[in-house]
Amino acid sequence: MHLTAPAILIAARPHGETAVIARLLTEESGVVAAYVAGGRGRQLRPVMIPGNVVQADIRAKSDSQLPFARLELVRSRGPWLSEPLSSAAIAWATALTAAALPERNPYPTLYAALGGLLDAICSADAARQWVEALAIYETLLLRELGYGGERPAIADLGQALEILDRQEPLIARYLLADTRADVLAARQLLRQRLARMIS
């Protein structure tokens, strides 16, 4: 395996003393897990933030071997980690994607949609401007994996929040049934912060 492509970093798990196992969403190869040597070191730590867009060079000697990856930062989400709503939304969107998608199955629509959602979160002046995109992304993810329906028509923020609430049981049942509860906890934290925004 040899893949060179832009990718969205959707998860980074520490491995050993200094390495990271990264999960990367690429347009043509889907989710790829790879070993990043020195991923917890001073140089690569700012790169290993879920939501970051990277240029990935991924290589493996065989399909059964965990690939090695070299990552170069293209776009950082780091500046938005200090914003409670933005950081919670980025954490939820990337955690959901990492937990729900099987490896090595291409989902070009989801790749483009996640990139658009993350850009919206990081460029909007207020959460009101990206909540609709989040609800649509969740719907799209459910649909692409065979559990959802049509794209919802969203008139306002209240309706977007209602759709998010309606989708939580579907996400928990179909997409996160076999995963740890902390993935859904990221969504609940985001929902609590969104509730404060309109109260």
Fold and architecture overview:
The chain has 199 residues and is an alpha+beta fold. It folds into two domains: 2-75, Nucleic acid-binding proteins (OB fold (Dihydrolipoamide Acetyltransferase, E2P), Beta Barrel); 78-198. Helices cover 42% and strands 22% of the residues. It has helices at residues 84-100, 108-123, 131-144, 157-175, 181-198; strands spanning 2-15, 19-26, 30-36, 53-59, 68-75. It has a five-stranded antiparallel sheet with strand order 3-2-1-4-5. β4 and β5 form a beta hairpin. α1 runs antiparallel to α5. The model has no long low-confidence stretch (mean pLDDT 92). Belongs to the RecO family. InterPro entries: DNA_rep/recomb_RecO_N, NA-bd_OB-fold, RecO, RecO_C. Keywords: DNA damage, DNA recombination, DNA repair. It holds the Pfam family RecO_N. Residues 1-69 form the DNA replication/recombination mediator RecO N-terminal domain.
List the uncertain runs. Answer: none
- How far apart the termini lie comes to 51 Å
Q: What structural category arises from helix and sheet content?
A: alpha+beta
Helices, by number, come to: 5
CA radius of gyration is 17 Å
Strand order of the largest sheet: 3-2-1-4-5
Helix content: 40-55%
Shape: globular
Major sheet description: 5 strands, antiparallel
Compute the average pLDDT.
Answer: 92
Q: How many structural domains?
A: 2
Q: How much β-strand is present in the residues?
A: 15-25%
Using DSSP, what is the number of strands? 5
Order of helices and strands: EEEEEHHHHH
